[in-house]
Amino acid sequence: KKKKKKTQTKLIIIAKMNKTFFCLFFILVIGIEYTLQEDKLHVDIEESIEIDADRLEELLQAGESFMIMFYGPTCGMCGYTKPKWEPVAAAAKEYPDIYPKFYHINAKEDKTAPYNRKFLVSGLPGVIYVENGKKAYPYPERLVTSDDKLIEFVKGGYKDINIYNAVYFDDELEKQEMPENHAVLANKHNFDKYIDEYDFVFVEFFGPFCGHCKNFIPKWSAVGLAVKEDEELKDNTIVLRVNAVDDRVLATRYDGFPWPSLILISGKDYYRFPEPREEREVEEYIKFIKGGYKSERNEGHIHDEL
Q1: Which residue from 41, 182, 218, 259 could staple onto 224, CB 3.0 to 4.6 Å apart?
Q2: What is the pLDDT of residue 45?
Q3: CB neighbours of residue 29 within 10 Å
Q4: CB-based burial, 269-278: b 16+ in 10 Å, e otherwise
């Protein structure tokens, strides 16, 4: 029995050693594969034109229209996009009267960082159509899954995206094209003034890169308009928007996360609008202001020292 037990123990130890060896071998293979993938991705994108930040600025200043992909040399998703991107970029070279020029830029370069922010590139690859150097349209899907879809986007499909997803580089053009937003954009410099002036401040904390926030803009603007037109609320309530990235202290003070976070503030008390936050009718947000908040837990109390 003792010999049998020792044999079983040895077998268990061997099995564990084999399992450990297999795990280490698997990790090693994955590591080698990833390294090879990195090397592969370091090969430049051949069919579009590589540019740097200086050249990108020249294109914008010249009012050019073009396609651009912000990529990372070791970005797996960029490697996935490359086979869909390059056939269209090749066609653009052959038919310049039909297609705009195709460029790509290394988003990991230090000089590119300001343009990552300017174009609101939240993830790589960032595929964008620039119109006349004044307006940018991001590709509507996270990844380019087919060259046919990319062709459709390039040949005019970009005009169908939600206007709030477009990025304007020209303030006058933005004023002309962008619908009026009835939710007031506030910041740390004027936020407390609104708290002092109004009985109720209904605020959306948003992130500039947040797709849900962009899609929610028309609805939140409609809430702002409804408040302005409501006899009971128009004099004592205001609807605000706060960029939670730029004003993180404000967002932290009122627990304005995740985005969009809808917080109703009354004096030093504040209440969170319940889930689902975005898929509601305008009337439901109005009811919340008019007393619906009382059925929700008081999220907190702001002390004078804050």
Answers
A1: 182
A2: 78
A3: 10
A4: ebbbbeeebe
Residues of the chain below pLDDT 70: 1-44, 299-306
In the block, which residue shows the tokens 């939710």? 183
Q: Please identify which residue in the block is written with the tokens 């040949």.
A: 155
* Cβ count near 262 (within 10 Å): 23
Cα Rg of the chain (Å, integer) = 26
pLDDT on residue 189: 96
Amino acid at 107: A
262: which 2 tokens?
A: 């809808």
Determine contact, residues 199/232, Cβ cutoff 8 Å.
no
Please, what's the b/e burial string for 247-260 (b: 16 or more CB within 10 A of its CB; e: otherwise)?
Answer: beebbebbebeebb
Tokens of 203: 């605020």
Residues 18-52: pLDDT tens digits? 555 554 444 444 444 444 444 444 536 789 999 99
Which of 288, 290, 254, 249 minimizes the C-alpha distance to 269?
A: 254
Task: Say which residues have a Cβ less than 8 Å from residue 150's Cβ, sequence separation at least 6.
Answer: 84, 85, 88, 127, 139, 144
